Amino acid sequence: MEYRPGRRGFLTRMLLAATALPAALVGRAHARPARDFDYEYEVTRTEEEWRALLSDYEFAILRQSGTEWARSSPLWNDYRQGDFSCKGCDLQLYSSDWRVALDKGWVFFAHSLPTAVMTDIDPGNPYGLRREEGTAVVEVHCRRCGSHLGHLLVVEGQLVHCVNGTSLIFAPRTG
């Protein structure tokens, strides 16, 4: 059986990932199949168009709801002032003003720009439902193109957007 990382239990995986050779992590994204939605996004592309736009790794995360390895994105601990846009359609999603500093290996925000993201219950198994808590895991998507960004999680008592850095384009502020 293939090991499939998710947000649940990520502290254990982070410890393991931190001790592994970084080279072993390059180019690896684990994903579950994309699901169909009735909602029509403003930006729509065929699978072939998405694959031409994104690397295989980016495609697995943005279009197949994968989760990048902890600390694999250079954005996870980059706290410069700037704005974060969707890698799939360039819609501005987050501001560095709303970054939350958590040493977990992903990019965390207190909230997004108004109307920039959509949420849905993550249908992936076994991560769609935390059986021990009886609660659903909430997935965050770009509202313009539907690209998977990450999840809404409670981390250290804070409700945060836990975002894959791979799904973002960072534009530093000048001046």
TrEMBL record:
One of its GO terms (molecular function) is metal ion binding. Its cofactor is Zn(2+). The keyword Signal applies. It catalyses: L-methionyl-[protein] + [thioredoxin]-disulfide + H2O = L-methionyl-(R)-S-oxide-[protein] + [thioredoxin]-dithiol. Residues 47-173 form the MsrB domain. InterPro entries: Met_Sox_Rdtase_MsrB (IPR028427), Met_Sox_Rdtase_MsrB_dom (IPR002579), Mss4-like_sf (IPR011057), TAT_signal (IPR006311). Keywords: Metal-binding, Oxidoreductase, Signal, Zinc. Its EC number is 1.8.4.12. GO terms for biological process: protein repair; response to oxidative stress. The keyword Oxidoreductase applies. It comes from the Bacteria. PROSITE patterns: MSRB, TAT. Residues 1-31 form the signal peptide. PANTHER family: PEPTIDE METHIONINE SULFOXIDE REDUCTASE 2 (PTHR46081:SF8). This is peptide-methionine (R)-S-oxide reductase. It comes from Halovulum marinum.
